[in-house]
Amino acid sequence: xxxxxxxxxxGLPGTGKTHLSRLIADHVGNCEQVCLDQIKERLWDQVGFQxxxxxxxxxxRALKVFFQEVGAAMGRSRxxxxxxxxxxKQGPALAALCARHGFTPLTVRLVADxxxxxxxxxxxxxxxxxxxxxxxxxxxxxxxxxxxxEADGLLTREELRRRCTTRGYxxxxxxxxxxxxxxxxxxxxxxxxxxxxxxxxxx
Length: 203
Description:
Layout: E1 5-11, H1 17-28, E2 32-33, H2 36-47, E3 49-50, H3 52-76, E4 79-83, H4 91-101, E5 104-111, H5 114-126, E6 138-139, H6 157-166, E7 176-181, H7 190-200
Parallel strand pairs: 1-4, 1-5, 2-4, 5-7
Antiparallel strand pairs: 3-6
């Protein structure tokens, strides 16, 4: 039987982490997914936030819930999967959870050209499916925005570059690491990624 495994799809914003996670979940089969962004969105819709300080406080609350849910998932499943721009903020706690529950961590780290990422991020933020909490500095449950281009929390090219180069998104590592360049989605060898996971999840 394969050892219990925590699969982390990490890396820069806009690299396709959510899409890859879906492929991995379908390939692995019996795994449990825990998504920090979904926890944030759930809390935003419960309590909202007024200003950057309240938003940051909710983000910290979401992080605590995330660790709790990862630990609970480890108690129920042998494979736990999560995607996020992980950094040193999450690394030590995730390592401690793996040690406590006997899980082996694996990291698939996604990187890409920053100019490409800015264009992807912009398109994603302007899409109506994107939760408004990601692009506003104040949000009340039920808020709507007809012109998303007017959102006051949209990332500039400079801010995206600053985050990507200073927060450690592109260097996060927990356990064995596979780094994949996602600058061109059509050139990504998804079967090779799945094969790498299969190899490292064997006894």
